Amino acid sequence: IEFTPEQKEAYMLEGGTPHLDGNYTVFGEVIQGMKVVDKIQFVETNAEDRPTKNIKIKSMKLIEK
Fold this sequence. Notes:
mainly alpha, 2 helices, 28% helix
């Protein structure tokens, strides 16, 4: 995939997590419910750093800026 200079600049200025590139993606922003995010952070993981039980998103809302 080739990105435009504008896309690269937005990635650098607005966010991104380069150490996760190629393995994971950022697909949104938490605007409510940080307690849930904190809870997910401490879930037990296996040797590959994957949760031992699947974590599923039960609901979400698309908010356009």
